[in-house]
Specification:
37% helix; nicotinate phosphoribosyltransferase; TIM Barrel; 21 helices
C-alpha cells in the first residue's frame, strides 16, 4: 500500500454547488490505477474519483479553449462554419540544441480522436461564471462532440528545425481549436525528452544508454512517457516496467544501496543477488567501489557487470577495469550512472574511460538544462464558406441543424492567416517540408505551401504524412522499435556540425520557397 499526502487546494467560486464549494482536496487516481498500484487517499472530505483517459483528454485543458468554443459556436456563419487549419511548430530550439526530435504523435492521435464530454463535465462547465449566458445548444453540441477533422504530421523520430511544422490539423473551427492544449502538452514533452535522449545517445558513440529516470520524473505518467520518448531517441531500454509491459521497451535494473546495506556485509548481498539474478549488475559504491570489486573477485562471484554510481567515474572505471581484467573477469561489464548527461558522457568517452554502459536518469527525463520546449499551435489558414445572403446570426435552437453545418467534406475558399507580432512571426497556409539529401547527408529542408509544385530533380522527400481523416486513423501506426530505427537513420544523415554538443549553428538548414515568402510579404503589406 502506498500512501500519498496531497497538498490542500481550496476552490473559491460563486454559484458552485455546495459539495464543490466545500471541497478541500482534489486528487485523481487515474495514473496509479493504470499502474495497478493500490492507493489509500488520506485527509479527504469527499470520495476520490478516478479520471478516465477520454475524460482527461477533453477536460485536462485550459478554460479559454471552452470559452472560445462557445464564442465560435454562436459566431456569424462565416466563422462558425469555417474549417480552421492549425500547425504546431517551434520558434526556437531548447538551449544548446541544433535540432528537435518529433515524438508523442501516437498519444496525441488517440487523445484527439477519443475526445468527448460527459454529463458531469458539461454540468460543471455550465456552472462556471463565463457560461452563465450561454444557450443550451452549445452544451448539446459538447455532449455530441466528436473530432471529425484531418491530421497531418511528420513521423515520430523525425529530426526538425525551427518553424517547420510537426503537425497540421484541419477541422471545423471548434474542433481544431479545442484540441490545442492536449496536442501541445503531449508533443512538447515527449519531443523535448526524445531530443535530449538523442543527444545523450549520440554522445555515447555507440555505447548503450539506458533510461533510469522514473523516480525523478514529474509524476508516474511523465515517467512512463519519458521512457517512451527516450526509447525513440535511441536509448536501448528503461527501468520503467510499466513501459516494458505496455510498450514493449526492454527493461533493465540493478540494485539499490539499501539492498547492500540491509545485509551484514557486502559479500552476502552480492552473493544473494547474483545467485538469484546472474544477469544483473552489482552496485559497488555503497562503501568503497575498489574494495567492493576486490571482494567480488575474492568471493568468486561472477556477475554480468558492476555499476559505478559515484566518485570520479573516469579514474574509477580505469582502476576497476584493470582489477577485473587481471583477475580474468574481462567479460564483466562496467556501467556508469549518477547525474550523467551528454556533456559528462562525451567527456568520459573522449578521455578513454572503459565504460561499457551508461544509465541516465534525472538529466534525461527532466531535460534538466532546459526543461521546456516552446512548441506553439497557430492558425495558418481557414476554409471559409460564401457569405450568407440572410442574417449573419447563427444562433439556432435546433442542435441538429447546427451540427449539420459542420460538414467534414466541405471545402471552402482558403483564407491565409499570419501572426506578425515581434518575435512571433508565423508563415501562412498549410505547408509541406521537402527534405533534400546530398551524398546521404541532409543538405537542407525546403518548406513550401502544401499544394506547391517542387523541382524533383533533387529527389526530395516530403515529411508530413496524413495520419487521420474524417476523425479516423488511417492504417496501423508503426511500432516503437520502428520509430527508434527511423530516428537513428535520421541521426546518421545529420552533418557533424548539427551534432556538435557545444556549438549551435547561427542558421539552420531550412529554406522557404519563393512562393511562400512572396505570399507572406503580400499579406504583411496588405495588413499594413
Amino acid at each position: 500500500m502506498t500512501i500519498i499526502e496531497t497538498q490542500s487546494h481550496y476552490l473559491i467560486q460563486e454559484n458552485l454547488s455546495p459539495h464543490l464549494c466545500k471541497q478541500k482536496i482534489l486528487f485523481h487516481k487515474d495514473i496509479f490505477e493504470q499502474l495497478s498500484i493500490d492507493i489509500d487517499i488520506i485527509s479527504m472530505e469527499i470520495p476520490s474519483r478516478s479520471l478516465g483517459e477520454s475524460e482527461c483528454t477533453s477536460f485536462c485543458t485550459d478554460l479559454y479553449q471552452l470559452t472560445m468554443a462557445a464564442a465560435y459556436y454562436f459566431s456569424p456563419n462565416q466563422i462558425s462554419r469555417s474549417r480552421g487549419i492549425f500547425e504546431m511548430f517551434v520558434r526556437k530550439l531548447p538551449l544548446n540544441r541544433s535540432y528537435i526530435v518529433a515524438a508523442g504523435l501516437e498519444q496525441a492521435l488517440h487523445s484527439i480522436l477519443s475526445m468527448k464530454f460527459s454529463d458531469e463535465q458539461i454540468s460543471y462547465i455550465r456552472s462556471l461564471e463565463p457560461f452563465k449566458n450561454v444557450d443550451e445548444d452549445f452544451f448539446d453540441y459538447l455532449r455530441a462532440f466528436k473530432f471529425t477533422g484531418t491530421i497531418w504530421a511528420v513521423p515520430e523520430g523525425t529530426i526538425l528545425f525551427p518553424h517547420e511544422p510537426l503537425l497540421r490539423i484541419e477541422a471545423p473551427m471548434i474542433e481544431a481549436q479545442i484540441v490545442e492544449t492536449c496536442v501541445l502538452s503531449i508533443i512538447n514533452y515527449q519531443s523535448l525528452i526524445a531530443t535530449k535522449a538523442s543527444r545523450i545517445v549520440n554522445a555515447a558513440s555507440g555505447r548503450p544508454v539506458i533510461e533510469f529516470g522514473s523516480r525523478r520524473a514529474h509524476g508516474p505518467q511523465a515517467g512512463f512517457l519519458a521512457s517512451r520518448a527516450s526509447f525513440i531517441g535511441g536509448c536501448i531500454g528503461t527501468s520503467n516496467i510499466h513501459a516494458g509491459l505496455k510498450l514493449g521497451i526492454p527493461v533493465f535494473g540493478t540494485m539499490a544501496h539499501s539492498f547492500i546495506m540491509s545485509f551484514e556485509n557486502e559479500v552476502e548481498a552480492f552473493q544473494q543477488f547474483n545467485h538469484l539474478i546472474p544477469s544483473g549488475f552489482l552496485l559497488v559504491d555503497t562503501y568503497d567501489s575498489i574494495r567492493a570489486v576486490k571482494k567480488i573477485i575474492q568471493a568468486k562471484i561472477h556477475p554480468t557487470g558492476i555499476r559505478l554510481d559515484s566518485g570520479d567515474l573516469f579514474q574509477l572505471s580505469i582502476d576497476v577495469r584493470k582489477i577485473l581484467d587481471r583477475a580474468g573477469y574481462s567479460s564483466t561489464k562496467i556501467m556508469a550512472s549518477g547525474d550523467l548527461n551528454e556533456f559528462l558522457i562525451n567527456d568520459l568517452i573522449n578521455r578513454g574511460a572503459p565504460i561499457d554502459w551508461f544509465a541516465v536518469g534525472t538529466e534525461l527525463v527532466t531535460s534538466r538544462d532546459d526543461p521546456a520546449m516552446n512548441g506553439v499551435y497557430k492558425l495558418v489558414a481557414m476554409r471559409v464558406p460564401p457569405s450568407p445572403s440572410s442574417s449573419s446570426s447563427l444562433v439556432m435552437s435546433n442542435n441538429k441543424a447546427k451540427a449539420d453545418n459542420y460538414d467534414a467534406d466541405y471545402v471552402g475558399g482558403l483564407v491565409y492567416k499570419i501572426k506578425t507580432s515581434p518575435g512571433k512571426k508565423s508563415y501562412p497556409g498549410p505547408k509541406q517540408i521537402h527534405r533534400i539529401f546530398l551524398n546521404n547527408s541532409l543538405e537542407f529542408d525546403l518548406v513550401t505551401l502544401e499544394d506547391e509544385d517542387v523541382d524533383d530533380s533533387n529527389n526530395s522527400i516530403p515529411l508530413l504524412r496524413k495520419y487521420a481523416e474524417k476523425g479516423e486513423i488511417l492504417g496501423e501506426l508503426p511500432s516503437i522499435h520502428t520509430l527508434q530505427e527511423f530516428h537513428l537513420q535520421q541521426l546518421n544523415t545529420l552533418p557533424s556540425k548539427l551534432k556538435d554538443l557545444y556549438r549551435v549553428p547561427e542558421t539552420f538548414p531550412v529554406k522557404f520557397s519563393k512562393k511562400l515568402v512572396t505570399l507572406l510579404n503580400k499579406i504583411i503589406q496588405k495588413n499594413v
